[in-house]
Write a structure and sequence with these properties.
There is one protein chain. Strand 25 and strand 26 (728-734) form a beta hairpin. The protein is 28% helix and 18% strand. Helix 6 packs parallel to helix 7. By secondary structure, it is α/β, with parallel strands linked by helices. The chain is globular, with a radius of gyration of 27 Å. It folds into three domains: 15-345, Glycoside hydrolase, family 3, N-terminal domain (TIM Barrel, Alpha-Beta Barrel); 366-537, 3-Layer(aba) Sandwich (Rossmann fold); 619-733, Sandwich (Immunoglobulin-like), CATH 2.60.40. The protein is built from 22 helices and 26 strands. The strands form seven sheets. Strands 11-16-15-14-12-13 form a six-stranded mixed beta sheet, with helices on both faces. The structure holds beta-D-glucopyranose. Beta-D-glucopyranose binds at residues 88, 132, 185, 264-265, 472.
């Protein structure tokens, strides 16, 4: 591999000058992205590029073909404008990293930034110069299949990863040879689809839109993201793709965004399906007016924009503004100078550097949910025979998760392969799937698996969801373990052999009915290419789990949405007031204990709270100190705490989390909000003083006065290991 220097632009491109020379059809060419037809390319397609009627293509990853189309665009078209070449590179290209939800569980933005650097490097080798990532939709409904693509439920955490991924994909210089443009999506509120059903309506009041759904997009823009994608969703009666308030007032005017906004796939004509427009022409008009620069997959702009201009419904000035955004993006990407790719400049897929990183990311994103009696880590001397069970122990594809168009399963190392490689002859491994797939209902494979468990020192059971159960349009109404997996786990548990459950999943699952069947539970998510080595290192204690949940695990589907940063309500539940179904059955008078906010049939708390995750070490928090108890707007205060690793044998990392509550607001405020976190490494017995600095800007929110500001008053802070942390103090923000 030879490192190519970043190209020096030959001569500055003056966008206004190019636009002045463009015909209307050439301008409209810049405003569409088309799915590339299979090679050999139809003449009409190539001719469209040659005549400037197509300015962007997607889903082509053959370098020679990309180079040839770029050559035609640059050498044979009248104005020599390069193509945008887009591909969904969501969590890796050939080397697959953990799904984004798992990446967020690492609480390690530097590591995630490195992963996206590598993803960009691998993708750029094919000539791809634009990806539709990161997805930074706040996701509070685990039924929604796309929660797998998100960074979870929290505004702050999602914002941190929005910045990290944009910087990773685009690098310091988006014009470098191995960086690609990022696209923050889906603007905005897509994750709030009612009942977690994809593409469904959203109901998001302005207060929540501004305080919850929009901030990560601000973060992405501050990190210089080159593009945004509009959401499929209907936002307060106006689908995002036609939403003038969202796109023009907020995005362009308030935030000054100068990048590209691309529609989602066929979302422009779908404005008609929503019932917002009467026909495709009106859909094109509304999307153009909202400032959607590029229409994805459909061609309503190409068909109708010219008529709309002739009829005076869209102005030439409006058209030119959209074209300028697209050309500016091409310029920022350095495409006028680097449209051609040279695969020889790149590291090859499967390069050890990429695989090592994929393993490190998988290790750090896994969350230890349960570890009764210190069952984990396993010691080799006590585990001479191991039953490796379940439908996900040896599935090179499923461990990759959703959205892996280019992921190479031949690079995958499965848990079974890794166990065999690591333990060798010294350990007898008995493998039985038990169930063919995670959805399988038949019990004919149980007996073999149960026998394997009976005759082994430990059973490692790999259950969860195969890759196709999460992702776009893959939503579930019931989020328990699918198929007959719960029964299967029970059967293994009943052998009396200790059970370690390794959960591979794209979303939180309700585990209430199976949690007692496992002595230990390691949440591996869909960990990607290096699932196997990462899991084995964690199970055998070569690594210590340090991931933390970026999303709440509910006990029951009926609790959804269940997230830690909820409002308190006027009648919060307390242990004294919550009535259980059993109490009702016993005839206890419900009104005697008070009417508060709870379900009769489920404990109001989550199964596992946001921020939760165990370690083989134990950490103790003490002596929280605020350096002041009164601050004024513009000031900051520091909060410090001593964290001690009380374990006598395991070094480990704790993610120390800072939460704040604004006790009284002009609008009701969440019961607590994450404001910061730090990963600290501690050797056995070691302590560290961890200090957070909190500025009053971080206390600002979109208030009743419809501006973002801080409001004086009482605040409470907590520092701890998860969102239920109890150790805290109060301070006052003076008027
Ligand atoms: C998804 C987008 C994706 C696009 C292109 C759509 O269906 O919603 O997130 O980027 O397809 O593949």
């Amino acid at each position: 591999m030879t490192q190519a220097p970043t190209p020096v632009p030959k001569e500055p491109i003056v966008i206004g000058e190019i636009i002045a020379r463009m015909t209307r059809s050439e301008k409209l060419g810049q405003l569409c992205i088309v799915d590339t037809p299979p090679a050999p390319f139809p003449d009409e397609f190539v001719e469209s590029i040659r005549t400037g009627r197509i300015g962007a293509i997607m889903n082509l990853v053959e370098p020679d073909q990309v180079n040839e189309l770029q050559r035609i665009a640059m050498e044979e078209s009248r104005l020599g404008i390069p193509l945008l070449v887009a591909r969904d590179v969501i969590h890796g290209f050939k080397t697959i990293f953990p799904i984004p939800l798992a990446q967020a569980a690492s609480w390690d933005p530097d590591l995630v930034r490195e992963c996206t650097r590598v993803a960009a490097h691998e993708a750029a080798s094919t000539g791809v110069n634009w990806t539709f990532a990161p997805m930074i939709d706040i996701s509070r409904d685990p039924r929604w299949g796309r929660i797998a693509e998100s960074f979870g439920e929290d505004v702050h955490l999602t914002g941190v990863f929005a910045r990290a991924t944009v910087k990773g994909l685009q690098g310091e210089n988006p014009a470098a040879f191995d960086t690609i443009a990022a696209c923050a999506k889906h603007f905005a509120g897509y994750g709030a689809s009612e009942s977690g059903r994809d593409y469904n309506t959203t109901n998001i009041p302005e207060n929540e839109l501004r305080n919850v759904y929009l901030p990560p997009f601000r973060d992405a823009i501050e990190a210089n993201v080159l593009s945004l994608m509009s959401s499929f969703g209907d936002l307060d009666g106006i689908p995002a793709t036609a939403n003038d308030h969202l796109m023009n007032t907020i995005l362009r005017k308030e935030w000054g965004f100068e990048g590209v906004v691309v529609s989602d796939w066929e979302a422009v004509p779908q404005l008609g399906v929503h019932g917002l427009t009467a026909d495709d022409k009106e859909s094109a008009e509304q999307a153009l007016r909202a400032g959607i620069d590029i229409e994805m997959a459909s061609m309503t702009y190409a068909r109708y924009a010219s008529e709309l201009i002739d009829e005076g419904r869209i102005s030439e000035v409006q058209l030119d503004a959209l074209v300028a955004n697209v050309l500016r993006m091409k310029q920022r990407l350095g495409l006028f100078d680097k449209a051609q790719t040279d695969p020889a400049q790149f590291r090859t897929p499967g390069h050890s550097k990429h695989l090592d990183l994929a393993k490190r990311a998988a290790v750090r994103s896994m969350v230890l949910l349960k570890n009764e009696n210190g069952r984990l880590p396993l010691r080799r001397e006590n585990n001479r025979s191991i039953a490796v069970l379940g439908p996900l122990a040896d599935e090179p594809n499923d461990q990759l998760g959703t959205w892996v168009f280019d992921g190479d399963p031949s690079l995958s190392v499965t848990p079974l392969q890794a166990l065999r490689a690591r333990l060798g002859e010294a350990c007898e491994i008995r493998h039985a799937r038990g169930l063919n797939t995670t959805r399988h209902r038949a019990q004919d494979g149980f007996a073999e698996a149960v026998d394997a468990a009976k005759s082994s020192d430990v059973a490692l059971v790999f259950l969860g969801e195969e890759a196709i159960l999460s992702g776009e349009a893959h939503c579930r109404a019931d989020i328990g373990l699918p198929g007959n997996q719960a029964e299967f786990l029970r059967a293994v548990h009943e052998t009396g052999t200790p059970v370690v459950l390794v959960l591979m999943t794209g979303r939180p699952l309700t585990l209430g009915d199976v949690i007692d069947y496992a002595d230990a539970i390691l949440l591996a998510w869909h960990p990607g290419t290096m699932a196997g080595p990462a899991i084995v290192d964690l199970l055998f204690g070569n690594e210590n789990p340090s991931g933390k949940l970026p999303v709440t695990f509910p006990r029951a589907v009926g609790q959804i949405p269940l997230y830690y940063a909820h409002k308190i309500t006027g009648r919060p539940p307390t242990p004294e007031t919550v009535v259980r179904m059993e109490d009702v059955e016993k005839g206890l008078p419900q009104h005697a204990v008070g009417n508060t906010s709870f379900h009769l049939d489920v404990d109001p708390s989550p199964l596992f709270p946001f921020g939760y995750g165990l370690s083989y070490a134990q950490f103790e928090f003490k002596d929280p100190v605020l350096d002041t108890v009164e601050i004024s707007t513009g000031d900051s205060l520091s909060i410090s705490v001593t964290v001690t690793n009380t374990s006598d044998r395991y070094a480990g990392e704790e993610v120390v989390q800072l939460y704040v509550r604004d006790m009284v607001g002009s609008l009701t405020r969440p019961v607590r909000e994450l404001k910061g976190f730090q990963r600290v490494h501690l050797d056995p017995g070691a302590s560290a003083r961890v200090t957070f600095r909190l500025t009053t800007d971080e206390l600002a929110f979109y208030t009743r006065r419809k501006t973002i500001e801080t409001e004086p008053g009482r605040f409470r802070v907590w520092v701890g290991a998860d969102s239920t942390a109890q150790m805290g103090a109060e301070f006052i923000l003076l008027p």
